[in-house]
Structures are given as C-alpha cells and as structure tokens.
Write a structure and sequence with these properties.
alpha/beta; 6-stranded mixed sheet; 16 helices; 37% helix
Length: 526
C-alpha cells in the first residue's frame, strides 16, 4: 500500500485556504499513484481554534469544505482531520474518504492538551477500516500513546496528530511509536501539524515506522513536506536527531518558525527591537532577521549614563553584521528630566529600583513610538530565568507584542548564540558572549551581585519548574539551601509580573510554556 504523508502549515479559521492546500496535496498524491493520503489532526480548521469550536456555523463550513475535498478523491482514499459536531459536542475527528464519499468520522477519545479542554469532548476512540484492501486502524491525537492489543489482522496504524514542539518531546514521541510498532508488529504512519499558532509551534516531523520499529520515512521539522511510504518496499532506516547540537538547532528552528508564522498569519511585516549589547536582545535580533528578513527589522540603541561604551559598540557591530537598520538615541537627558520632575516625590531618597525602572520604561516609550511610526511590531527580548525571578520591569522590558525567547533559560540563550555564530558566521560579537550579564541600570551593576552564576540558577529553576521538585529535593541534590530558598521566594513574589506579559512562544517540554504558575509545580498536558 502506498501512503502519502502531507505535512502542511494550516491557518486557524482559514477554512478556504486550508481546503485548497489539502486539495493540492490530494492531486499531488494521485499523480504519484498513492492509494491513501493523510492530513493532520484538525487540518481543515487549523488548531488550536478555541471558541471557534463552539460555533455551529464554523463547524458546518468545515463539513461543507470536506464534501468539496471528497469530490476530488477519485481513485484515492484520504483521511482528513477536522472538528466535527456530535450530539455530545465537538469532537476532534478523522474523516475517512473513499470513492469520493465521506464514509465515517473517527473521533479522539483522550483529551490531554489543555488548549482543547472545554472545547473538545471525548469520542469512542480508534476504529478499524479496510482501505484499498489493506486493514488499518485509524487513530487521532494522543490516543496513539494509549493504543494496545489491536486486532491481529490490522497491518498499519494511521495516526493524525497536532503535537506541539517541546524540547525533548520528539525523541519521546518516536520512542513511544517504536515500542508500539514492535510490540504490536504493525506499521505506524503519523502525520503531524506544522507551523506556528501564536504561542504554540508544531514541529511536523511526521513519519512512518515499520513493524520492526525502524523509521522508514521522516519528514522535515518546522516546514511543509510531502513523502510517500510504501508498506511493501524495503526499508533504509532513518536516524532521528537526538544530539545536544540537534536540540539547539531544533530550538532555533522552532523560534524562527513561530516568529515567522506569528507575523505571516496576522499580516504583520516589520519588527522593532531594542538592542542593548547584551545576549538576549542579540539572539532575538538574529532570530528576527532570519525569520522576517533583515530589511524588515529595525533596532533602537538607547544608552543611558550607566551604559558601558563597549555595550553600545557591541550593539552597533551586531546590527551592522546583521544588516538591520538602527538608530542610537541616548536617554540620559530624558532620564534626568523625569527625575527632576519627580523631585517633589523622590528628592532626598536613595537610588533604588525606582530609578532603574524609569530607565526601562523610557526605553519602552521610545520603542513603542518606533513601532507606531513605522507600522512595526515590538518584539520582547526576555528570557525565562529573569522572568521567573522577576528581574524585569513592568511596562518596561516586559513590553512587546510577542516574546520569542521568553521560554528559554538564560544559559540556553548562550547556547543559541553560539549556534547562531557557528551557522551564520560569527554575527554576534564574542564580547557579548564573554561579558558578565548586567542590566546596566546603575553604576557597575552585575547580575552576580544578586545571584550565583546562571548555570546554578537555571539548574534550580529547571528542577522547580520543569520537574516540579520541592525545595527539599533540590537541596538534597546538593544545592545551597539559602540560594534555593531565595530563588523560590523570588518566583512566588513575582507572579503578578508574569500575568502581565506578552504571548510567549512555548518551547519547553512541560507545557505551561511561560511562568504563569499557579501553583509553581503544576504541570499541564501539551
């Protein structure tokens, strides 16, 4: 049996556009003499569609589009994912099309993704079907990981999915498939969603596995792809990317894909960014230039009297190497004017976070002015470590329409920077990588004045957030109890800031994505 895997980038709510993509892929599959073509879960609607899944008109439009798709399936079978209204509510279904007719809808039983809870109801789960004389099991979404003891006459498991990207989840996904294929002795074909949907990015990486648990076909990550799998053809096993360097590359590709689709699907073109000469804004600028094109990125350099000369020069060198436009606008006089105006309130008091925050907010005022005048979208340059600890200023460096790196720890920002330099030719000056982290909001300020090195901070944060460990467990693992208690207190004290943050691209394996943690140790489905 020849099975075509159509991995396409769908847009939420664009039923017409999604339908045309599906029809084009069906015609391509027919030209290759495929017996069956598979499309991802909720391909027609795009996902996550949230409240659209409650609108009867929207669901009817999806069914109407499916009828048009079925009319193109002469000589080929197709499985198309869509939301489908039943007596119990909307289900995530796989529509089986044969001989230009929609024969049945196979619904998903297990609703594990938090983004679907309340919008999708459980169905009865996988079903068997004979397609072109080949007995198959049709499975939707996470039902695949709960599938076992199938009928022995089933030859191939067909799974359509909408599984988001998360660090480490790709290896887990294919290891689960390998065990199932080997234990059940059946081929598995999986087609996954691909592309960004605001704070979620789907990696694609669809594939097929034979009954021995060997990967026979592996599609690209973070881009559309198409492949043909012949269940009877000899297999040349494919290797799954699993190394440390692979993971950093996938994180970078996920960030570019998520940012590119956030702009494309919302009809945005230009991005504005503040360049400080630090690691975070350098990485975001590189991602933006790669994802959107350097001609669509504009930067402001806004030094104060506390900014070091080398930071300004580093930022200039980075902008010039990237080929993005930039302006240098010192904020010293603006800052002094604000402080003079505030003398009746602040006069005679010691320099503290008040003066630091004023600088951050001045910079945001200027960046928002750039955004408005140039019809741009302001990108946030945060990281997960600083956001978790509250080392950020409300209405200052927490501002922006989108945060592409807000789910990456500080140490991961350095990993990305080294990867960018390795692949794109040292665009980030080495001095940015070598300098000690500092927000430069007071004389000789360094992050190490308040915290141990970020390698230690991030290791503690990872245990708290990703692994849900209690403070005692972390101390017993060898970390200083005073540091652990301090970090925990900072996280809990700064919850209010995380609730006032722009959308963050979710790249973590545990899927709250950003630190909107209530409670801290809660771990949601993907």
């Amino acid at each position: 049996m020849k099975i075509a895997l159509a991995q396409l980038n769908y847009t939420i709510g664009d039923i017409e556009g999604n339908k045309l993509k599906i029809i084009d892929a069906i015609n391509k599959a027919k030209s290759l003499h495929a017996d069956l073509v598979l499309f991802a879960e909720q391909a027609l609607s795009g996902t996550p569609a949230f409240d659209l899944l409650r609108k009867t008109t929207f669901l009817e439009l999806c069914e109407d589009a499916l009828v048009e798709i079925a009319s193109c399936c002469d000589g080929i079978a197709a499985i198309v994912g869509l939301p489908y209204l039943t007596e119990k509510g909307t289900i995530s279904a796989a529509a089986l099309i044969q001989d230009r007719k929609v024969l049945r809808y196979v619904g998903k039983e297990h609703i594990t993704a938090r983004r679907e809870m309340g919008f999708i109801v459980p169905s009865k789960g996988y079903e068997y079907a004979v397609i072109k004389g080949h007995k198959c099991a049709i499975v939707v979404g996470d039902d695949l990981s709960r599938t076992h003891d199938m009928d022995k006459s089933v030859e191939t498991i067909l799974s359509i999915n909408a599984r988001r990207y998360g660090k480490g989840l790709l290896s887990y996904r294919y290891e689960s498939m390998r065990r199932l294929a080997y234990v059940e002795g059946k081929n598995i074909v999986l087609v996954n969603q691909v592309g960004g949907a605001t704070d979620i990015v789907y990696d694609g990486t669809s594939g097929a596995m034979n009954a021995r648990g060997e990967i026979a076909v592996l599609l690209k990550s973070f881009e559309e792809d198409f492949a043909l799998y012949d269940t009877k053809a000899p297999v040349q096993p494919v290797t799954l990317p699993t190394t440390y360097n692979d993971r950093t590359r996938l994180v970078y590709q996920a960030a570019c894909c998520g940012l590119r689709d956030f702009f494309r699907k919302n009809d945005y073109r230009k991005a504005a960014i503040g360049l400080s000469g630090g690691i975070d804004s350098a990485v975001v600028a590189c991602i933006a230039a790669d994802a959107l094109g350097r001609e669509n990125v504009r930067a402001l350099l806004m030094p104060s009297q506390f900014s070091s000369d080398h930071s300004v020069e580093d930022a200039k060198v980075l902008a010039e190497r990237l080929g993005i436009g930039y302006n240098v606008i010192p904020i010293t006089e603006i800052y002094r004017s604000v402080m003079d105006t505030l003398k009746p309130v602040t006069g005679g008091t010691e320099f503290d976070a008040t003066e630091e925050n004023i600088q951050a907010r001045i910079r945001t005022v200027l960046l928002m002015a750039l955004q408005n005048k140039t019809d741009s979208i302001l990108l946030n340059s945060s990281n997960k470590s600083e956001n978790a600890l509250g080392l950020c200023t409300l209405y200052g460096d927490t501002a922006g329409a989108f945060s592409v790196t807000g789910d990456l720890y500080k140490s991961e920002m350095y990993d990305l920077a080294r990867y960018i330099n390795r692949v794109h030719g040292n665009v980030i000056p080495e001095s940015i990588l070598d300098k000690e982290p500092s927000s430069e909001l007071r004389p000789d300020q360094k992050d190490s004045d308040l915290l141990p090195p970020y390698e230690v901070v991030d290791a503690i944060l990872y245990r708290m957030i990703e692994e849900g460990q209690h403070r005692e467990e972390i101390v017993n693992a060898g970390f200083d109890s005073h540091v652990v208690e301090k970090i925990h207190a900072m996280i809990m004290r700064n919850e209010k800031k995380r609730h006032q943050f722009p959308p963050v691209l979710r790249l973590s394996a545990c899927a709250f994505g950003h630190e909107r943690l209530m409670p801290l140790t809660n771990r949601y489905g993907d």
